[in-house]
Amino acid sequence: MARIFITGSSTGLGLAAAQSLLAGGHDVVLHARNAERAAALAAQMPQALAIVTGDLSLLSETRDLADAVNAIGRMDAVIHNAALYGASGSGRTAEGHSVMTAVNLLAPYVLTACIERPERLVYMSSGLHRGGNAGVDDLDWTRRRWQPEQAYADSKLQIVAFAMAIARRWRDVLSNAVDPGWVRTRMGGASAPVDIATGQATQSWLAASNDEAARTSGGYWHAMRREEPAVPAASADHGDRLLTALQALTGMTIGIDG
């Protein structure tokens, strides 16, 4: 039995993964953006080990969220599921960051830096990462004209690169990225071809399974199969430059194992 924390688990794929893992006998820590959502989630999922709250668009709340997770105890796995797409990621936060960059990229970085190191890390990406811009000099969209679709693709390319960089830096952690496909969720819409049970399966498997294939690191996964990601995502040089840029944006460092 594993103890697993899932961000963005009040709806969609995060909730579906939580339900699957709970059904498998695991202890699951859920996440909601605010107290109102947490109360509704508690009524829906009373079997959860705990529910923590925090707005992932704000680095201050993200750091507090990490503290709340650490107070529960060490996690065996963390699924970084929360993400924004389209208009929901537009605008800038009270701290001055792009909302989409803050939720889709800065929050996973901060949580990874601050949560006690688990055995497994799973980062949710998208097939759209293949259209992402690999540049790291304007991750926060301070110089480019805002384009929500491009910003989403960029963030998903960079989260794959981040997962690969963690796999290289932390040899005692299984770090992987997952493309769940185009799933019928609130984000994906009713016409999406992949049902939600299928969409959540790969990340849940990577987080908890003892299958030999699931106990690997540095992979990009889709539909339970390992695939090659976009070329920049697998580049060690790109990963190092990305980590330097994320450190500058957050003020936090992720170290290298000796």
TrEMBL record:
The keyword Oxidoreductase applies. InterPro entries: NAD(P)-bd_dom_sf (IPR036291), SDR_fam (IPR002347). The keyword Aminoacyl-tRNA synthetase does not apply. Keywords: Oxidoreductase. One of its GO terms (molecular function) is oxidoreductase activity. Pfam families: adh_short_C2. SUPFAM superfamilies: NAD(P)-binding Rossmann-fold domains. This is SDR family NAD(P)-dependent oxidoreductase. It comes from Sphingobium yanoikuyae.
